[in-house]
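User: Structure with adenosine-5'-diphosphate, tokens only please.
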Amino acid sequence: MVWEGLNIPRETREEAQGHGAAVVWFTGLSGSGKTTIARALERQLFHDGVRTMLLDGDYVRHGLNGDLGFSPEDRRENVRRVGEVARLFFEAGSVVLCTFVSPYRADRDRVRSLIPEGRFVEVFVDVDLEVARARDPKGLYARSQAGDLEGLTGVDAPYQAPVAPEVTVETRDVTVEESVESLRRALVEAGVVPGGSR
Ligand code: ADP
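Assistant:
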């Protein structure tokens, strides 16, 4: 098959819209705060006039990845497909926010390799298991404790923390607003979005 390349190059879109594209990949335990922070960041970016797309783990598992479970192979496939979708939105010029536990380093690094250097922002949403367990926004830790759920990341399935994430937010200690601000700053410093619009 002959691949002609994108009809309208990303750079052309970026120039026309006045900001760059990026993939911001949130990884961390269930209840660490990925979705909460990404949703707040997306609202901020929207307010700033930035084109965005939020790909959320729970949402994607209802549709595109509804056929996948939580075995290591299915988790890998989940992240692989999302990475490809993220790349499409990226090439369309969006700042793509992806919120997935994505416990395996190799799977995250594979997504990183799809995106040009400097445009993949890995965000380690870092929290102690005990804090995540106490929050338990989806009741998963309670179900695991009751013997009703097997293979919960951090409990009886592994979580491989990022070695060199672009940003780490320790959500036991910083507020959602502070996390949003540090991510916004990281995007400005990466030259993705213009600074000083607040
Ligand atoms: P995840 O997407 O990582 O599973 P969620 O964002 O769904 O996590 O849930 C995190 C929960 O923790 C939410 O109920 C949120 O309100 C709460 N929370 C408390 N403090 C913070 C914080 N500093 N940052 C992010 N979330 C926090």
